[in-house]
């Protein structure tokens, strides 16, 4: 019987890569990188053999989709930010049985979901970046399953049920899983003409968004998920949640939604990036 051994909401900002290169941004994202490393370390200590990544950079327009190939290997350049991420090599083992099981459980709930093993179906950087930093210094590597979470025509209710299906699949599998919601908090990127004059790489575009982000982190740390879930639809809409925050909806669906009794632990202190609000948070699980 499988088990969920770690649950987290994480950043995947591309400036994490530039932070390790010579140049004006060197060292800028050290705290975020260190946060990923700590989450990876905790996942290994908890016995995780697989990471399921809810990827808000994988855009899906019809149904839900899971990249559950046996093996992932490629060289990634971002269409969105080719100046930030280019020629990035990656290689991970997959867990197709778990991906297929998620799809089976989701379809049984009336949530149309396909699991794919297609060599030419590349991973997106919402998966590649956190997996790169979480596993880089680990002797044992996790397998990877990626779930599309930039959902353009999907309801939060169906994504909640997909989250339930993910948990059911984990428990019916032989895998110990780290579930990673990969996406920002607020996500209002600076308008292009305002980016440079506002030092856009290191600033937030909206004080309202920053204040709501900080309140959300306070609710998570205090374990007030009932309040958070009530505000989540408006939070996603008015604070421009990345991928409409379907990654977060799936995560809390897996955790039990309003039955979840844990708390959030901030691993990386809140920081702005290109107008957006970012952090790394781990959610406690029952022992």
* SSE series: EHHEEEEHEHEHEHHHHEE
Question: How big a fraction of the residues is strand?
Answer: 25-35%
Helix content: 25-40%
CATH class: Alpha Beta
Q: Order the strands across the largest sheet as they lie in space.
A: 6-3-7-2-8-1-10-9
What CATH calls the topology is Protocatechuate 4,5-dioxygenase, Chain B
- What distance separates the N and C termini? 15 Å
Low-confidence stretches: none
Any idea what the CATH architecture is?
A: 3-Layer(aba) Sandwich
Mean pLDDT: 96
Task: Output the structural class.
Answer: alpha/beta
Quick take:
This protein is of the alpha/beta class. The chain has helices at about 15-20, 30-45, 95-110, 125-135, 155-170, 190-195, 205-220, 225-240, 245-255; strands spanning about 5-10, 50-60, 65, 70-75, 90-95, 115, 145-150, 175-180, 265-275, 275-285.
Describe the structure.
The chain has 287 residues and is α/β, with parallel strands linked by helices. The chain has one domain: LigB-like (Protocatechuate 4,5-dioxygenase, Chain B). The chain contains 9 helices and 10 strands. It has an 8-stranded mixed β-sheet, with helices on both faces. Strand 9 and strand 10 form a beta hairpin. Helix 2 packs across helix 4. The protein starts with a strand and ends with a strand. The mean pLDDT is 96.
């Amino acid at each position: 019987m499988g088990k969920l051994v770690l649950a987290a909401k994480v950043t995947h900002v591309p400036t994490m890569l530039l932070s390790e290169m010579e140049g004006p941004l060197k060292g800028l994202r050290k705290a975020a990188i260190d946060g990923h490393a700590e989450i990876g370390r905790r996942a290994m200590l908890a016995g995780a053999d697989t990471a399921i990544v809810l990827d808000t950079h994988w855009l899906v327009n019809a149904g839900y989709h899971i990249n559950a190939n046996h093996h992932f290997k490629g060289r990634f350049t971002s269409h969105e930010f080719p100046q930030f991420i280019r020629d990035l090599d990656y290689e991970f083992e997959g867990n197709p049985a778990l991906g297929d099981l998620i799809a089976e459980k989701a379809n049984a709930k009336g949530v149309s979901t396909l699991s794919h093993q297609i060599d030419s179906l590349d991973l997106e950087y919402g998966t590649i970046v956190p997996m790169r930093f979480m596993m880089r210094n680990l002797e044992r590597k996790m397998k990877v399953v990626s779930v599309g979470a930039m959902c353009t025509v999907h309801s939060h209710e169906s994504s909640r049920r997909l989250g339930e299906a993910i948990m059911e699949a984990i428990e019916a599998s032989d895998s110990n899983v780290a579930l990673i919601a990969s996406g920002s908090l607020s996500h209002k990127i600076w308008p292009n003409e305002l980016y440079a004059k506002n030092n856009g790489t290191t600033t937030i575009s909206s004080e309202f968004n920053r204040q709501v982000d900080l309140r959300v982190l306070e609710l998570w740390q205090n374990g007030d998920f009932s309040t958070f879930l009530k505000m989540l639809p408006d939070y996603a809409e008015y604070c421009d949640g990345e991928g409409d925050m379907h990654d977060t909806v799936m995560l809390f669906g897996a955790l039990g939604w309003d039955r979840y009794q844990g708390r959030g632990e901030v691993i990386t202190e809140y920081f702005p990036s290109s107008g957006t609000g970012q952090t790394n948070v781990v959610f406690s699980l029952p022992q």
